[in-house]
Model the fold of this input.
Amino acid sequence: MDRYAVLQRLTDAQNALLGVAAGAIEAASTQPLTYTKNCIQQKVRVSLDPRIMYRGTPASMLADGTLIGAQFWVCGFLQKLIVKGNPRDLTFAEEVGSAYLAGFASGVPCTILELTMIQQQRFGGTLPGTLRRLYERNGLSGLFRGFIPASQREAFFAVGYLGLSPRVERVCDSLDMSPTAGVAAGSIASGVLCAALTHPFDTCKSIIQGDLECGGLTSTARSLYAENGVRGFFRGYPARAAMICCCFFIFNETKLRLGVALFPDRLLDKPRDNTKG
Done:
């Protein structure tokens, strides 16, 4: 199996299903880190009560499952357009370009779902009730609060695990490291870098979506800088960097292991039949 061409070998529906599974598994696994990061960014006290820490987990699983499913689907679709039906090793530009576009596209569902999750974490309530409250407050536009930072964060996030991580894994392959060690190294290296690149977007998004009274991206960024300088944009960075490294590892391992388990006919090379001829 060519583990760098998984998305090229699967159908669009199979890529979406695999991404949904990867996102849901990741969200449930990293919920404490997600909760801690959001609290630090919004300057809310962190509670160790599991009932509070895991509040909003179903919405988080729905959000991440939807986002990663969309990213796997769009990225796989674009990669298949590039290779024109003949799976091959992509160039760095091809991998990064398809990943960026996939991440940006996922910013639409990301904005709605994460706004709901953050509002639930802060104020409680049911998923339908939170959506209803947001809609009644500002109409349809209220559900897309924080779209610009969300779409850019997701674009570079997807570049991290669909573009940069595979490149690091290839280097590990050349050093005769095991596939799992390569995935771990790729996840950590790309995760730390990706967290640094995307954290300012994430911080602004969390504040905008957590406090419905604050302004948009520009005014939020200005307030952050005036209050704490550049450091203000990196509130909660350690928790998020750890979370992203875990995310990338889970995504890539799920893509490989669960993909083979669910779709062996697509991913496993068929043995040659030497009885013929």
Remarks:
- Confidence is low (pLDDT under 50) at residues 272-277.
- Residues 179-210 form the longest helix (32 residues).
- The radius of gyration is 20 Å.
- Residues 96 and 163 are 5 Å apart (CA to CA).
